[in-house]
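Please fill in the sequence for the structure shown.

STRUCTURE ENCODING:
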């Protein structure tokens, strides 16, 4: 403080005299003048410089560890308000930030690795290990002994197109089999025809008109149909016929099979499908046909009970992906002779995360198989499945992909005026036939309203 005192006095007394001018030496002294900075302020400036150097060093270390670019916005944060925080606390805060950044970088790397694995899985073909190892590919679909009636084959393609247009059936593919409008013309046994009549099923639905002949011909198929369109019968009736043919040629021995495999996304749907198969197999047995055994492999059931059926030789199997994977890995089930595979509600299975299991199941097949995909929508993953797993597939669409069950709604769209005694209109089937009008009148006299007929085979 004593050193600066003469300078302060000179600045006050060094005034320009009246009528005179300041010398050049005096002007130079003014230019070299340095204002006084208190000691406390100088210490704060020095502390800020040290903190800035420390922060820059920590940022460079983070950049080297994580490989990410340093964020410049943190360097611009004013340090004045933090002057009351000790250096130890600030160092701890910076250390926590660096650890958080390292964790986020690891998560980002894991996500990138998952994306790479997904892209590799999508690009991997749905083939067995043997087929991939030997480079085996199939150019032609499986041939079967079934043929449409001769008079159906003699009809022109224009007539088949009129039938498809009438029932709003959209088809894509090469060599599409003709549509058939009755179960009898599809050459089903009398026992199955009687069973259909007992269930109240007299005529096939649109998906059945085109889908059943396509599957009986041995073609791979993609069926886009809503729940309630009768798609379950489309893949259950043909597999029964194929297994019946195999059993008559050469009876199944112990621990042999299955020949047909149906995979469902849920236990409830698997139980329903298994019940339909058991119903028609029992009718065939009552009609002096060989016994066809069907196994149900789902979670929540005893494996011992499921294996009891498989030990005697099983023709058909209905399973969920999880339980089937478990049985295949434990070598309790073999797919050596399986030649028929149906994936019911394939889009739902993929949404539930079973895509990896389905790809693993495909690797257990030993030969060419007929593959059927049934889906209410047509997402990109289903298209990738079709490209890598199906051979010259036929795509059958009985409504827009993802559309609601408009067919079921149309069946109840016609209204008969004055159908009931209370004046409430009665709903009747959409077909404009005298039988519908008679039904409406009779039910109206009895004070009841006709119900819309239930969908066939869900």
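FILLED IN BY: designer on duty
SEQUENCE:
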């Amino acid at each position: 403080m004593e050193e600066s005192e003469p300078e302060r006095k000179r600045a006050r007394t060094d005034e320009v005299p009246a009528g005179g001018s300041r010398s050049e030496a005096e002007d130079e002294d003014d230019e070299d003048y340095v204002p006084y900075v208190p000691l406390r302020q100088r210490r704060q400036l020095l502390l800020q410089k040290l903190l800035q150097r420390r922060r820059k060093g920590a940022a460079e270390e983070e950049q080297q560890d994580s490989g990410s670019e340093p964020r410049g916005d943190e360097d611009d944060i004013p340090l004045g308000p933090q002057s009351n925080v000790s250096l130890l606390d600030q160092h701890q805060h910076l250390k926590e930030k660096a650890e958080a950044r390292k964790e986020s970088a690891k998560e980002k790397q894991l996500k990138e690795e998952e994306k790479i694995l997904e892209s590799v899985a999508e690009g991997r073909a749905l083939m067995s290990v043997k087929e991939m190892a030997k480079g085996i590919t199939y150019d032609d679909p499986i041939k079967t002994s079934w043929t449409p009636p001769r008079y159906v084959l003699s009809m022109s393609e224009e007539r088949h197109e009129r039938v498809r247009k009438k029932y709003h059936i959209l088809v894509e593919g090469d060599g599409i089999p003709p549509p058939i409008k009755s179960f009898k013309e599809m050459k089903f046994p009398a026992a199955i025809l009687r069973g259909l009549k007992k269930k109240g099923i007299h005529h096939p639905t649109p998906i059945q008109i085109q889908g059943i002949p396509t599957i009986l011909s041995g073609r791979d198929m993609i069926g886009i149909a809503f729940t309630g369109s009768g798609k379950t019968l489309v893949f259950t009736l043909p597999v029964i016929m194929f297994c019946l043919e195999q059993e008559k040629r050469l009876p199944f021995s112990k621990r042999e099979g299955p020949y047909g495999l149906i995979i469902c996304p849920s236990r409830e749907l698997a139980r329903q499908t298994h019940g339909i198969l058991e119903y028609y197999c029992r009718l065939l047995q009552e009609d002096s046909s060989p016994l066809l055994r069907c196994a149900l492999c789902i979670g929540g059931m005893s494996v011992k009970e499921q294996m009891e059926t498989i030990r005697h030789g099983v023709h058909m199997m209905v399973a969920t992906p999880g339980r089937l994977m478990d049985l295949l890995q434990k070598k309790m089930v073999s797919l050596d002779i399986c030649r028929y595979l149906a994936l019911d509600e394939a889009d739902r299975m993929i949404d539930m995360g079973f895509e990896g299991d389905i790809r693993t199941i495909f690797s257990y097949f030993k030969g060419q198989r007929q593959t059927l995909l049934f889906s209410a929508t047509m997402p990109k993953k289903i298209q990738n499945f079709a490209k890598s797993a199906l051979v010259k597939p036929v795509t059958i669409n009985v409504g827009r992909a993802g559309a609601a069950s408009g067919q079921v709604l149309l069946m109840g769209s016609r209204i008969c005026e004055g159908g009931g005694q209370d004046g409430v209109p009665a709903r009747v089937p959409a077909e404009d036939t005298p039988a519908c009008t008679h039904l409406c009148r009779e039910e109206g006299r009895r004070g009841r309203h006709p119900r819309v007929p239930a969908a066939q085979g869900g």
